[in-house]
Fold this protein.
Amino acid sequence: MEKRVMTDSKRRKGLMVASAVLGGVMVLSACSDGGKEAGSAESSKASQAQVDEAAAKEVSKARIAISPKNGSDNASINNAAKVTVTDGTLTEVTMTTADGDPVEGTLAGDGKSWKPAAPLKRSTTYKIAATAKDSAGLEAHENSSFTTVSPDNSFIGNFTPEDGSTVGVGMPVSLNFNKAITDRKAVQSGITVTSSTGQEVVGHWFSNQRLDFRPDQYWTEGSTVTLKLALDGVEGADGVYGVQQKTVTFKIGRNQVSTVDVATKTMTVTQDGKTVKTIPISAGSPENPTYNGQMVISEKFKETRMNGATVGFTDDDGKGEYDIKDVPHAMRLSTSGTFIHGNYWGADSVFGSANTSHGCVGLNDVKGAGDPKQAAAWFYDNSLLGDVVIVKNSKDKVIQPDNGLNGWNMAWSQWKAGSAV
């Protein structure tokens, strides 16, 4: 028993010694590892420097810029979207709507810029992804997303006449804005109208939504008129911006001016100052006289309906005093309903002898507008939008300048006073 106790005691002592030795080894190993850790840190720093240097060499020098700025709203539909690159060339640009519809674009020949091929849609979100390479062939990437201006925050000007058309010498350039314009100067400054003859052209505001341009005298026959709209981004009212950027040109045809003499009941048609035809007419009756003044043909209809109720001529039952569904060869002279047109329902004898209409100028014609020999057919076929019809010797007043395209009834000094620039 005693021997076994002694043996156990020795075993415990041996374990204690072993533990001490192992402890010493463990401490020693810890100190040794600590020295190795310090060396590794220095080595790691050196390695990281090499990695950074290598990474720097791997980064493309190409710098891509996308406009408008990512997250922009109220962006222009014309000029905002553009991708450019410095120190490299663009290799791929994709533009899509938020729904994924692709947008076609044009890459510059030198590969330095890209832009959409056509104006963008309003109130639409677009995404652009661009890739470029530098001289070493290393790629750079950039992405952006923006939203174009909404209809509520933009305005457009509907203009007359149409691009590429040929019109008469009296046709003004008339713009009707779909929003009220409060900064007339800013908007008018973004619009220029010029003539190939050098005639001075001035704008006149009839209201906060209508702006017309004309020279002092009628346009010169055979000239070319150019309308330039640079309204993109122009703030026409608080928070409301223009979106149009375009150039419109139209030709001025021969100088045709027709003079209706209500007293003699005739119309004399001149072209380039020479009388080409005299036509018997029937103007407004004494109860409903025709306006005096210079009027411009603004619309032409081979046949159209005329209902007196639409212009205030009603009977006791509120129905139109007349309702003719097929008025032939009708050409509008005023917004309020003055036309020069064919008349098949009146006796042939009234033309040149009696004024019987509700204010229009009537020319002899047939039902269906099918006889080219009729006076109304000849006049219709030989008239352009923009031709001038002058009415004189009527018992009525001179037509208001803003009733139709009839600004010629305003003195030049008064016209110029209505300009905002």
